[in-house]
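ESCALATION

Customer reports they have been waiting on this structure for their group meeting. Please prioritize. Original submission:
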Amino acid sequence: MRAPAPAYAADLNGETIETARIALGAALIGAVDQVGEVALYVEREAIVTALTALRDTPGLEYQQLMEIAGVDYPERPERFEVVYCLLSLTRNHRLHVHVATDDVKPVPSVTGIWPVAGWLEREVYDMYGVLFTGNADLRRILTDYGFRGHPQRKDFPLSGFVEMRYSEEQKRVVYQPVSLAQDFRNFDFQSPWEGAQYVLPGDEKGMVPEAKGAPTPLKADEIVKADAPAKSQPAAATNEPKTTETTAQTGAGEPDPGNQRQDKPKDSDVVPTKGGGQNQ
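Update from on-call: job pushed to the front of the queue and completed.
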């Protein structure tokens, strides 16, 4: 049984652009083939009509809205672009539809075509501040309550405006303006090869004399003292096996070698008996 959709997408970009030019008419500003994908630039007021035509026109049939993304170009008069990513299931093909706007001119909502666009438009509004007319619930969706600014704008500071922390005194989460402590630190801008004139924390470990050739911050006279020969130390014990070379060391020739005691008493306390015994 043949699959209702092609297993692999053919090169449909050329015929897609031609069909889109006919279907969109004056609403289409431009169409380009970039990095293997089709990008259509559409008038802001005609976005609903254009997307409806891309969904319903035979030969296009882009049934699904996969994503709505935002782009910020601060150098442009209309700095924002809203990008609609569409997918055709029957043709196994994708394209992008671009709309230019700013933070004042609203973009018509496409929730009447794809209800999923409600949350996607809220994300673009939250991150970039783009307004959408016709969205019944245009609220922030990613940031916190009372958040100021739009984080994905190029001019938004990386540290933000407000920081959140837990206050041990108030026993709750508090919001306060961002305070960057590193701005008030004293930095040493001397040459990194020369180093600072004072001892930095942790450098005191290297102030003791070191072996010759080791890096040291000491002066020349202190280096000479460190290079002075050390006092002679007793030779360390070796692991050579112990040997005996004379009879005096081995005890050979003695009546009882190995049991000689110089402090042995002359008179023994044990008196032997005639019958013998264990004390004989």
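Sent to customer with the following note: The longest helix spans residues 13-24.
Escalation resolved.
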